[in-house]
Amino acid sequence: MRTLLIAAVLASLGAARAQAQVSGFVDGNDLHKLCISNSHGAIIYILGVSDAHDFFVARGVSARICPPERFQRGQVADVACKYLADNPQDRHLSAASLVIFDLEGDFPCRR
């Protein structure tokens, strides 16, 4: 599972949103179902994507998500779940790609 998560994040870091459909991975509909059921699975998945981003940043990949300093882990899940609820037209795409795309937009890094 960890390998699939890392592969999904790697694919999403360089992929355009329109190219985010990856067969065999968790899609936005799956993650949205976890979000609306208040499942811990949604929080774990979203934090895993966020942690994978941080892992790659620590190894030299440019940061693309820069939340405020005192941002709480649960807020990451809240923000991503809200994106899925507000954008049903995108939920057929890869969940990891959607999480990265949303967090990039909500918490852009200052260049």
Order of helices and strands: HHHHH
Residues in helix, %? 55-70%
SS element count, helices: 5
Domain unit count: 1
Kindly provide the radius of gyration, computed on alpha-carbon positions and rounded to a whole number of angstroms.
13 Å
CATH class: Mainly Alpha
How far do the termini sit from each other?
Answer: 33 Å
What labels would you give this structure?
111 residues; mainly alpha; 10k-s Protein, Hypothetical Protein A, Chain A; 60% helix; disordered N terminus
Outline the fold blueprint.
Blueprint: H1 2-14, H2 28-36, H3 40-58, H4 73-86, H5 95-106
Helix pairs in contact: 1-3, 1-5, 2-3, 2-4, 3-4, 4-5
Descriptive report:
- The protein has helices at 2-14, 28-36, 40-58, 73-86, 95-106.
- The protein is mainly α and 111 residues long.
- The protein has one domain (2-12, 25-106): 10k-s Protein, Hypothetical Protein A, Chain A (Orthogonal Bundle), CATH 1.10.890.
